[in-house]
Amino acid sequence: xxxxxxxxxxxxxxxxxxxxxxxxxxxxxxxxxxxxxxxxxxxxxxxxxxxxxxxxxxxxxxxxxxxxxxxxxxxx
Amino acid sequence: xxxxxxxxxxxxxxxxxxxxxxxxxxxxxxxxxxxxxxxxxxxxxxxxxxxxxxxxxxxxxxxxxxxxxxxxxxxxxxxxxxxxxxxxxxxxxxxxxxxxxxxxxxxxxxxxxxxxxxxxxxxxxxxxxxxxxxxxxxxxxxxxxxxxxxxxxxxxxxxxxxxxxxxxxxxxxxxxxxxxxxxxxxxxxxxxxxxxxxxxxxxxxxxxxxxxxxxxxxxxxxxxxxxxxxxxxxxxxxxxxxxxxxxxxxxxxxxxxxxxxxxxxxxxxxxxxxxxxxxxxxxxxxxxxxxxxxxxxxxxxxxxxxxxxxxxxxxxxxxxxxxxxxxxxxxxxxxxxxxxxxxxxxxxxxxxxxxxxxxxxxxxxxxxxxxxxxxxxxxxxxxxxxxxxxxxxxxxxxxxxxxxxxxxxxxxxxxxxxx
Lengths: 76, 419
Hints:
By secondary structure, chain A is an alpha+beta fold.
């Protein structure tokens, strides 16, 4: 698993925790503002990560003994 | 006689012989050793099956030999399921092989059970070995045949769920000779890269022989050794392979594997949107609650202040009142005592003055008695040097000194003439 997918999961989990804590009504206004700021950053981060990967469908081919990638089209 | 004779053509004879063989013997299992194996360019195999006593020609056509799970070679002992038949153009008797197993290894079901028990004993199927799948893999390695429905289904489902996704296919042979090795190699290769978050390993449905590569130890061990989480997707729902047991997750079909591999992007997006809304909402709610409380606070504060002020005012008033009262009392007491005091004071003053006068007079008399001037009154005089020292001895002065002589009335200055 690469670091970045772990980042995404952790960010989403953290965001959920922040929201739950904010909704618990147990935070002071100051803490709520801090949570809100952190949460807003995580929202941006997570949405960004969903779109940072570009679609690429490739297959491995052997060229001169080395493996390379080339676009793969499925026959429909 | 000639008319009654039944004359066969050669073709008719061979046909009759073929039918007799096929109907008379039918499909049988034959055990023997392979020799003179030829893999023809057409894909068909031709070989001789022999034992100590005899030999028989065999043919195994492409559609059948594709599912042989091992590499047959000369000298190998095998069991062949085949149809006794005859090649009519030549009149050659032969066995048309449909299945082939390695002799001494037991049949496939037995091999399957044996390997399964062995790997289970090693702990390769243990639940605690299973790696969690990433929630959102960015690039998925797919190990399957580049042709056929499986790869198409996998790619279609993956891209439908998550349009922008990296998919890298390792095109492998999924059945027949060399399939297991190529699958194991692909799994190993993906683990040398650092951009693959998840592997999908599988193929579409088929017979037990067709799926056999996924029951091979080499594939099982490659999957077990994979650092990248693996979803296995072999055949249909009812097909269980060793790969399924050793993989981190078994999918019933290749399409199902794709469903399990990635979340639906739009669902993730709306999850994030919902969380963002709740995040903002909770802060807004708190702000509203606080805003509603402000007028209340203000009122309470004013009331508290006012009450405090009133209390203090009251205490000041009380104190002032008490003070005034006390002052008035003191003044009254003082006023009442004043006349008496005046009288006493006058009395005291008068007697003090009289007393002093008397003392003064007494002192005056005493003073007068002691004063040298009183002696002078009686006719004595007082001589002093120029410095004012009283001369009691004539030796205290010498001729030429000026001396002062005081009388009862007046003073003279004289000069000493002689002693």
